UniProtKB/TrEMBL annotation:
<dbReference type="InterPro" id="IPR015353">
    <property type="entry name" value="Rubisco_LSMT_subst-bd"/>
</dbReference>
<dbReference type="InterPro" id="IPR036464">
    <property type="entry name" value="Rubisco_LSMT_subst-bd_sf"/>
</dbReference>
<dbReference type="InterPro" id="IPR050600">
    <property type="entry name" value="SETD3_SETD6_MTase"/>
</dbReference>
<comment type="similarity">
    <text>Belongs to the class V-like SAM-binding methyltransferase superfamily. Histone-lysine methyltransferase family. SETD6 subfamily.</text>
</comment>
<dbReference type="Pfam" id="PF00856">
    <property type="entry name" value="SET"/>
</dbReference>
<keyword id="KW-0808">Transferase</keyword>
<keyword id="KW-0949">S-adenosyl-L-methionine</keyword>
<dbReference type="InterPro" id="IPR046341">
    <property type="entry name" value="SET_dom_sf"/>
</dbReference>
<dbReference type="GO" id="GO:0032259">
    <property type="term" value="P:methylation"/>
</dbReference>
<keyword id="KW-0489">Methyltransferase</keyword>
<dbReference type="InterPro" id="IPR001214">
    <property type="entry name" value="SET_dom"/>
</dbReference>
<protein>
    <recommendedName>
        <fullName>N-lysine methyltransferase</fullName>
        <ecNumber>2.1.1.-</ecNumber>
    </recommendedName>
</protein>
<dbReference type="Pfam" id="PF09273">
    <property type="entry name" value="Rubis-subs-bind"/>
</dbReference>
<keyword id="KW-0539">Nucleus</keyword>
<dbReference type="InterPro" id="IPR011383">
    <property type="entry name" value="N-lys_methylase_SETD6"/>
</dbReference>
<comment type="function">
    <text>Protein-lysine N-methyltransferase.</text>
</comment>
<feature type="domain" description="SET">
    <location>
        <begin position="52"/>
        <end position="276"/>
    </location>
</feature>
Length: 458
């Protein structure tokens, strides 16, 4: 999946201009796409400007029109990559498998089957994973703790050193790829984070040419991707899920394609925006390298220790009840009674309860749970030794006046963590020459603080 910063902040379609400049990169991509069987309607056009590629309508489009089709054979995935046997043998999966495949192809340069596509990708998507220490300090106080980025980066390096690098000596195929190093791996990792799609059970995370050119803009989505996700795990066929060996070859032929379809009528000259998941600003920044000033899906998280600081000296605070709340695990709350707790003991330590206020300033389920526990009458609290009963109860619990007051106390405590005030941040944003990293950090802070002020003022 991908994102273009300028586009997402530019509400109008005034950027549309007739194609004045001959774009060699795009031309190269076009003929490659044709060769790969990727088809698109004459009614759409790909344009390139300083911020990258975007897709526009060249005539009015109707709802439910397929605007382009990409055969699954044209995508870059763990199954289409020349590394597929190594990936299987080494049991690599998900982002790591695709990052390795992408890095390999990029380092092959013109020898890569995907080169015309690869050379059309942005050099870098400026994700926080690439920010230096100085830039990361701007995020202090926000829900995106700079130390988590530093930790993630260290993990990426560790994976590279311990899992990826040893493969280069072990498998001869890697002799083909020049300049394979941590930097090229890191670049590939950022592209995978921001542009890859989860295609189906067989291909998993994949780079999908053309589909990844469509930008994203919350609230303006007008196209979506269509693709059968449930396929045979062994051959990728869409005709069956259970693989049947004798008819295998027939099945392989039935690997179909991915298409982009319009959600609504689209006016000529409008940009086409793909539907993406609803992400908070922090997640947008992590994945796409930008944030929205008016993001209806934004949230502010508040850590249990911050909540504790805020409420531990209140009359209604009860230590036993607090500990009971802490003992409830996120996994239980999500009601995914998956029985893999034993496998997951690595997660045990960071299984901190996820408390947050949403864009409307409303407490989430976990926070409401704490409030119910704290303010429940003795008999009612006693009946909640059965967590399921408690969770059921919370679903129908309205936020009482007492609970609201507790939320205000928590929100004020959370606000005290930031170094600057909302007004100072807003003033900072006025600077037209603000470096983008600083700008995104300020937008994140402004949005988080607005949510917290909402909690306090309501
Ligand atoms: Zn099969």
């Amino acid at each position: 999946m991908k994102q273009k910063q300028q586009v997402s902040h530019n509400g109008s379609n005034k950027r549309f201009k007739p194609n004045q400049k001959y774009d060699k990169t795009l031309d190269y991509l076009n003929s490659w796409m044709e060769k790969k069987g990727i088809t698109w309607k004459q009614s759409i056009i790909v344009r390139k400007d300083a911020s990258g590629h975007s897709v526009f309508a060249t005539r009015d489009l109707k709802e439910d029109e397929i605007v382009c089709t990409v055969p699954k054979t044209a995508i870059l995935s763990r199954k289409t990559s020349p590394l597929r046997d190594i990936i299987d043998e080494e049991e690599l999966a998900g982002g790591m498998a695709l990052t390795l495949c992408l890095m390999y192809e990029m380092t092959l340069k013109k020898k890569s089957e995907w080169w015309p596509y690869l050379q059309s990708l942005p050099q870098v998507v400026d994700l926080p994973m690439y920010w230096d220490e100085q830039a990361l300090t701007h995020l202090e106080g926000t829900c995106l703790d700079p130390s988590t980025i530093v930790e993630e980066n260290a993990l990426l390096l560790e994976d590279y050193q311990s899992i990826i690098k040893p493969l280069f000596r072990k498998h001869a195929i890697f002799n083909e790829g020049k300049y394979m190093n941590f930097e090229s791996y890191r670049r590939a990792a950022g592209l995978v984070a921001s542009r890859a799609f989860s295609v189906d059970d067989f291909h998993d995370l994949s780079m999908v040419p053309l589909c990844d050119i469509f930008n994203h803009k919350s609230g303006s989505e007008n196209v979506h991707m269509e693709c059968q996700a449930e396929v045979c795990l062994e051959c990728g066929s869409e005709d069956h899920v259970e693989h049947d060996a004798p008819t295998h070859d027939e099945h392989v032929a039935n690997v179909k394609s991915i298409s982009m379809t319009t959600n609504s009528d689209i006016k000529c000259k409008s940009e086409l925006f793909n539907v993406y998941e609803d992400l908070s600003n922090v997640d947008l920044l992590l994945k796409y390298g930008y944030a929205h000033e008016n993001n209806p899906f934004d949230v502010v998280s508040i850590k249990p220790d911050v909540i504790h600081n805020a409420i531990h000296d209140k009359k209604w605070f009860d230590k036993n009840r607090w500990e009971y709340w802490l003992s409830i695990k996120n996994t239980k709350l999500e009601e995914e009674e998956e029985e893999n707790e034993e496998e997951d003991d690595g997660d045990e330590e960071d299984e901190e309860l996820h408390c947050e206020f949403n864009a409307e300033g409303k407490p989430n389920h976990t926070l409401l749970l704490l409030l119910c526990i704290m303010f429940a009458k003795k008999e009612q609290y006693a009946s909640w030794k059965n967590v399921k009963k408690l969770i059921q109860h919370v679903k129908s619990q309205a936020v009482t006046k007492q609970m609201k007051e507790a939320c205000v106390i928590m929100a004020k405590e959370r606000l005290s963590i930031y170094k600057d005030s909302l007004d100072e941040d807003l003033e900072g944003l006025q600077d037209k020459h603000l470096p983008s990293r600083h700008k995104w950090s300020l937008i994140i802070k402004v949005c988080e603080k607005r949510i917290l002020h909402k909690v306090v003022e309501e």
